[in-house]
Amino acid sequence: MSKPIVAIVGRPNVGKSTFFNRVAGRRISIVEDTPGVTRDRIYADVEWLSHNFTLIDTGGIEPDNGDVIMSQMKEQAQVAIDTADVIVFMLDGHYEYTPADEEIAQMLRRSKKPVVLVVNKVDGTDMPSHFYDYYNLGIGEPIPISSVNILNFGDLLDIIVGYFDESSKEVDDEEVIKVAVIGKPNVGKSSIINKILGENRVIVSDIAGTTRDAIDTPFEYDGQKYTFIDTAGIRRKSKINEKIEKYSILRALTAIERCDVCLIMIEATEGVTEQVTKIAGYAHEAGKASIIVVNKWDMLAKDNHSYANYENSIRDDLAYMRYAPVMFVSALTGQRVMNLFEKIQLVSNEHSKRISTGLLNDVISEAILLNQPPSDKGVRLKIFFMTQSGVKPPTFVLFVNKKELAHFSYIRYLENTLRKNFEFTGTPIKTIVRERKKKTFK
């Protein structure tokens, strides 16, 4: 059920980030003529000819000195091999291939993964004199492109999607709720899934980082189909020492992108740490429905106020996610674990909720009467109407006279009004402000 993953690999400064930005349609990666600028992996969802896939921009080899270049190259290439479904091996067309390129080509051949050999910076119809030497790498036919001029991009993307199976072209099963279990390492993500499944389908250990990949597990409960995605724990960047673990984080982030509901795991004995705040922020910014799951609740000494006090503390630390319900569970004892399904179903429904334009504007009109829109230099914000343009998350378009007058605090007021009337439990709300152009008559 996961999207195919296409990784771009190659030495520094061959144009990987420029290519990535062009295909993604927006400037995501930092592009400079300095080797090693892209230090972390960056991903984007891409569609080509009805095929959906995830494109990964990888950092080039960053040798500290000549003695370690081969070892670092092997680490980088191996991570891409293990993670990607299709690999784009990019070279700089201005130069002949190097011994480092030969070494990585050898590893790619052994991987048995589909590899597309791309020669970048070929800006004209005349091939460089050394172009046909690239065949000696044994990867296949080199595809000349120019990332700057978007030359031959269509042909290249045709070749890439040609390696996908038909599942990448199919529409997701709307009846299946995809649930990503995310959080720091060793907070009980795998244990929760194992308890739900009733069997050890995911490796569990007390060693942080056991789950290297995002693992999809289908499950049906009370007539509803689910897919649980167990992800590698997300650590602070300063604690990521292994190259392969950086890709585990990438897998976790891509799992967030393709899920419907995020279970944000917190260890009861730790509470909301700085890293938990960042992880929750990933889900919030991705517009995903979320549930905050406090695991190992059985390990705390409790009184009559424990639930309320702990939840209030979470609300203070994750103020931007006040919409997310909080569940207190124990994966070890099974306490309230199965109650998660009711909440998952609830937030999934809220994530897909639609409000009619008529009802929506009745509520907005009342909100405007109770709290007049702001004004600036004698000009008051005028709200014409609001309509819902999408779901997952619920997305609303607000038409106004002057966009710059729509202060974020007033937009927040309108969003809170929507929540008061329509709840939207567990899901963020997105509001787009647009100016309605005045009609001119001739």
Automatic annotation (TrEMBL):
CDD domains: EngA1 (cd01894), EngA2 (cd01895). Residues 4-168, 177-352 form the EngA-type G domain. Gene3D superfamilies: 3.30.300.20, P-loop containing nucleotide triphosphate hydrolases. PROSITE patterns: G_ENGA. GTP 1 binds at residues 10-17, 57-61, 120-123. It comes from the Bacteria. GO terms for molecular function: GTP binding; ribosome binding. GTP 2 binds at residues 183-190, 230-234, 295-298. GO terms for biological process: ribosome biogenesis. The keyword Nucleotide-binding applies. InterPro entries: G_ENGA (IPR031166), GTP-bd (IPR006073), GTPase_Der (IPR016484), KH_dom-like (IPR032859), KH_dom-like_a/b (IPR015946), P-loop_NTPase (IPR027417), Small_GTP-bd (IPR005225). Keywords: GTP-binding, Nucleotide-binding, Repeat, Ribosome biogenesis. Pfam families: KH_dom-like, MMR_HSR1. The keyword GTP-binding applies. Associates with the 50S ribosomal subunit. PANTHER family: GTPASE DER. GTPase that plays an essential role in the late steps of ribosome biogenesis. Belongs to the TRAFAC class TrmE-Era-EngA-EngB-Septin-like GTPase superfamily. EngA (Der) GTPase family. This is GTPase Der. It comes from Helicovermis profundi. The gene is der.
